[in-house]
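Handout, page 2. Input:
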Amino acid sequence: MTIDHMAMYVNELEAARDFFINYFNGRSNEGYRNDTTGFSSYFISFEDGSRLELMSRPEMEDNAKSKYRTGYAHIAFSVGSREEVDRLTKQLADAGYKLLSGPRTTGDGYYESCIIGIEGNMIEITV
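Output:
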């Protein structure tokens, strides 16, 4: 069994699509729009075949995103090397995204950093 995809609602659909394309080498489909409901989405595909569905619709709630909230906590991207973790972390921080931790080796042995990415969502960057 495999996970087919993960999905997240966003307010700025095109900005979210561009974020994952520009920083994480994602590839986007042409998108989908339901004119009756106002629902729109893009599927972003990554090198390993994993996919992220970005969705938006007019009647969404946008509650505060606490770091320790219940539900999905973060998306983690494996970038292949410590050097790439360092490079991408710096690139995102230089672009104005908030760095939460790292790059560092965690107590359980992962080399990672965590940033607050698009629309306040946590993203982990790991080897």
